[in-house]
Amino acid sequence: MKKYHLLFAVFFFSLAMSAQSAQSFLLNVYGGYTFADKVDFDNSYARVEDGFEWGVGLEYFFIENQSVELKYNRLDTKMPLYTKIITPIGGVPPGTQLNAGDDKGALNYILVDYTYYFGSSSSKALPFFGAGAGISILESPRNGNGTYFAWEIKAGVKVKTSSPLSINLHAYLQSMSAAVGYDYYWDYYWGTVAYPDYVSTFQFGLGASLSYDFSK
Fold this sequence. Notes:
By secondary structure, this protein is mostly beta strands. The protein has one helix spanning 2-19, and strands at 25-34, 37-40, 44-48, 51-63, 66-78, 81-83, 104-117, 125-140, 144-160, 165-187, 191-213. It contains one helix and eleven strands. An eight-stranded antiparallel β-barrel has the order 1-4-5-7-8-9-10-11. A hairpin with a 4-residue loop joins strand 9 and strand 10. It is elongated, with a radius of gyration of 21 Å.
């Protein structure tokens, strides 16, 4: 995953340098607390534990109160996996952790967000609502890395200062979807038909970002 960090660092640095001459670019640095979620499988379930999430983004205002943003966020967490039923081999009882000592991982979100700000550019406080989509790179020490579809929604308020800096206070909901196998059904015409079985995470969080406006 280190090569991804290096690529994004070079990418955002080059964009930030080129944006110094522009009038509608903001550099955002994110920090927040993301709460845990439970993910159910057929015979087991997993938890994506809560933790601190950080990130960086470059936001472009194409008109006064609407923007698009390319952002990268990372959540380092634990992902314990538990049994739901008594296992056929060894008779492991329900609730037993199957990956004890090997449950550390991370979620990396690469998203393109659209944000709408309510109010005029002269306002000191601007409520906003936004949504985005992209990919999530799941780091798992047991299964390696996987890339999946991801999305988020967010809402909050932007507080401006007399300097190029501003602060965003916001709540967010992030989701990642992954195929985890197949469910099989019997059809009168086609016989046994396999459909992909998907699971999704839904994690709520509270955060803030510090923004620097290159136009000021």
